[in-house]
Amino acid sequence: MSSNFGNFLKEKRQEKKLTQKGLAEKLFVSESAVSKWEKNIAHPDITLLPKLSEILETTEHELITASVDNKLRSEKIQAKKWRTLSFSWSLFFYISYALALIPCFICNLAIDKTLSWFWIVVSALLLAFCFTNLPKLIKKNKLILIPLSMFLALCLLLLVCCIYTQGNWFWVATLSVLFGLIIIFVPIYISKYKIFSKIKNYNDFVSFFIDFVALNILLIVVNIYTNINNSTGNWYLTLAFPIVCISYLILNIFLCVRFLKLNKLLKTSIILFLINILFLFPTFIKVNNPSVQKEINDMNIFKANFTSWIPDAGLDNNIALIVFLTILFLAVSFLVFGLIKHIKIKTIGE
Prior knowledge:
The chain is an all-alpha fold. The protein has 4 domains: 5-68, 434 Repressor (Amino-terminal Domain); 70-167; 170-259, no CATH class; 262-350. It has 16 helices and no strands. It has helices at 5-15, 20-27, 31-38, 49-56, 60-65, 70-112, 118-132, 134-137, 142-165, 170-192, 203-230, 235-257, 264-277, 281-284, 290-297, 315-349. Helix 7 (118-132) runs antiparallel to helix 9 and helix 11 (203-230) runs antiparallel to helix 12. The protein is elongated.
């Protein structure tokens, strides 16, 4: 224990406006014992430190070192401020939710004589709760439970809105949200959890395959929905599925490019050439729907006409060709500089 213990003890005792006798009574020791501690003639028993630190509102570490631990005190103050702020934040939202629900409940009953749009408000506030208050309440498996709870709350909101509007779009909206979550969280789950350790090294390929399956399910549902409402025909098999398959193939080729034993410039050149291939698709795609075919033709670089820049009369084709030529120029540039770098490294190696 520090030689300055006596002075430190006396200073803290006086700060609490305690006499030696008063401190002794609280510790159930004699007044002379406290006097000896302050004169550094003796030191308190180690078992008295917790009680002594509690009375003087200090820490055992500070008593032993006979000095104020400003860093620890600052951390405690900051932690207390954060707890207060966190509690105030949560309380603010709880009060806000109550203030929103009660008037909506009364107004809906008073105006419509029944509860109708009130349930939209309830489900919307439940979704807001999942964003604001729920993360604080969940202590374990946050990465799974929080996104899941948000998704379920959003599904409930979509369902209530769909019933209220007497629509049939619930599954399209829900699968669209699910598809977005799959894109974001599947790669994270594969890289984080041990259960996926065997496929962790192939995370990109597995994630893209799951995205591919999910996207096709979504497109099938959208095709069914549009057929029910507008009789658009089976555009999924004739248009969407081929485009998705070709895009999926190109994306996988992109992923394979990174495994090539080439410098970064050459890899970039290959990827740019592959991107340019996408601009050639409209030339070969033919569908029965005139409006869809027109939109496809508007992206046909072979129908560009730089003498005409009128909207809806070749403008999109012109823009598509300009983008195509720009990417092609970049691809050739990266190829040239990549080959120069490759030859230079090979020459030095020899």
